[in-house]
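Explain the record.
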Amino acid sequence: MLQRILSGLLNRAAPSLEIHIPISPTPSMLNMARVLTLTLRRNGGIYRDAPVILTVGDASIDESLPKSYPWLERLGIEWRWLSDAEFRTDTFWSNAAARYSQQFRSDMVLMLDADVLIASRFDDMVRAAHRSSALAGLIAFSSPFEVSSLAGNWSQLFRDFDLPEPRLDFTHTGYGSMHLNPRFARCPAYFNQGVVCLPAATAQRIGTILPGMMADLKARTNSPYRLQIALALAIAKLEVPTQVLPLRYNFPNLGPVETRFNRDIDRASLLHLHSAVPISKMELFASAQSMRAFVDRADLTGVNAAARKLLADVLPQMS
């Protein structure tokens, strides 16, 4: 009895949380969002019942489409269409960026990619970000100046956006395993977009300037990391406090990272199916049959093996 009372008091003291996920209305992405939410409801600890909001973008809006998926209501998932005009601006990147301009109802916001799975409770991450009023994320795996079409360096980019000289205080998560060039080892507060936790008020501040920064970046580069880059610029411009997450809150199925940090996989709370090896996420989540085939595999290791177990737990609820 005492334990239940203490647990209830602890839960009430925690900041409220809502989770925002960007998707396209394709079978693969809908299955990703469904599986993510099922793992949240099963393994999310005090946040297992947190509201899940999908920001959905497509070339055309079909207002009746959500009614085709009764599991949305059963799982407590809200569907919000991105407007046609917003989607045309920068397709899926506009969709992901639009989450920062939402009307939030919670103290804290957790921005997740749809290819994330919840392995265990993560309330300590949310509490820490709330206490510090900080945007918390994992430093990106690699430099956008090394792996995409973005030319120059951080100093030049910050000058282009009338920002002061950046402090390169952080080392890319993949440096020393995925990437070895010391020229690209360091960065400012530049976070992987798979998992970002921040106060709702901070998200709204970022949302006021993010679209303009995204538009300016799109004119300079077609880098697939332009939302991550724009967020780094917004953090610098607004002087947002930041907090670097340990790998267990955004552990990717990237072989070199897994090899280097193998001992931490069992402690991971949030798994990120980032890699296309051994199967791309779009193929994995394409159908119940493809998900079942993944669960039946005996050759998986590391994060993929952990993901297989999580998927096996929730797959019966997909029927």
In short: The first strand starts at residue 17 and ends at 23. The CA atoms of residues 148 and 223 lie 5 Å apart.
